[in-house]
Amino acid sequence: MVERVGGGPEVERLAVGPRLAYGFYDRPVLDVARDLVGAVVRHGETAGRIVETEAYHHSEPACHAYVGVTPRTSVLYGPPGVAYVYRSYGIHALLNAVCEHEDVGAAVLIRALEPIDGIDEMRARRGIDRVDGLCNGPGKLTQALGIDLEDNDTSLLDGPIEMLAGAPADVVVGRRIGITKAVELPWRFCEAGNPHVSRPWPS
DNA sequence: CATGGGATTGACT
DNA sequence: GTCAATCCCATGC
Questions:
Q1: pLDDT over 70 for what percent of chain A?
Q2: φ, ψ for residue A28 (rounded to 5)?
Q3: Of all protein residues, which has its CA closest to the C1' atom of B6?
Q4: Taking the CB of residue A28, how many other CB atoms lie within 10 A of it?
Q5: How far is the CA of A64 from the C1' of C11 (A)?
Q6: Which nucleotide minimizes the distance between its C1' and the CA of A149?
């Protein structure tokens, strides 16, 4: 069964399938990051289609798991298919999906969404009226969807944050942004031409 | 126990 | 383009 959202020529692109299962996350983090573009995140009445992700892996210093297992990183070293939500710059909550086998330490950062559902609620939470700018950044999308640190370590398979299969997307690859270490790795994945991608745009 | 550094954003020059 | 807000947590004494 496939539930459809919206109408007209957008129907196929916005098609929404079932929740992504354990086996989707239990794969190399680069594959998961690429394949999550086009999937849908839902939290309560609000939902958006993923248009930008980044991969993080314990083997490189930009990843929180680089320091090994600590109270903060234990979620990253836990089983795949779990949400890792942490506070950034003391202000924002950032949403990740834990990937790869248990004890590996890898996750995909969800960086931007195309708003699909509950847009009025997103506007209220974000305090803005326009639709563009609602979810075009990792801190903005968690605010719009009402995701916070209490969602850390909750299951994406049957917890409050739903990750739903979507239609395949045309993906472009670039360097991760907003980091100071391992900046050369091309581990950022964006839907080609999508206006809801955060800046700076991939080249 | 004190310190320092962010996987960001919005306001401002 | 610059810059401050703000808090969790890893690290080191």
A1: 95
A2: -55, 135
A3: A89
A4: 14
A5: 14
A6: C8
A90 CA to B4 C1' distance (Å): 13
Instruction: Tokens for A21, please give them.
Output: 């299962």
Contact, A8 CB vs strand C, < 7 Å: no
- Taking the C1' atom of every nucleotide in all shown strands and the CA of A137, the nearest one is B8
How many whole angstroms separate alpha carbon A189 and alpha carbon A187? 7
A145 by DSSP, 3-state: which? helix
pTM over 0.85: yes
Residue of A83, A30, A75, A17 lying closest to A57 (CA atoms): A30
Q: Which amino acid is at A186?
A: P
With vertex at residue A51, the alpha carbon angle to CA A84 and CA A59, rounded to the nearest 5 degrees, is 45
A201 touches strand C (CB under 7 A): no
Token digits of residue A123: 């506007």
CA A98 to C1' C3, in angstroms, rounded, equals 33
Q: Quote the pLDDT of residue A1.
A: 44
Q: What are the DSSP calls for A2-68, one per residue?
A: -B--S-GGGTTTT-EEEEPPHHHHSS-HHHHHHHHTT-EEEETTEEEEEEEEEEEETTSTTSGGGG-
**Per-residue model confidence as pLDDT tens digits over A7-54:** 555 667 777 899 999 999 999 999 999 999 999 999 999 999 999 999
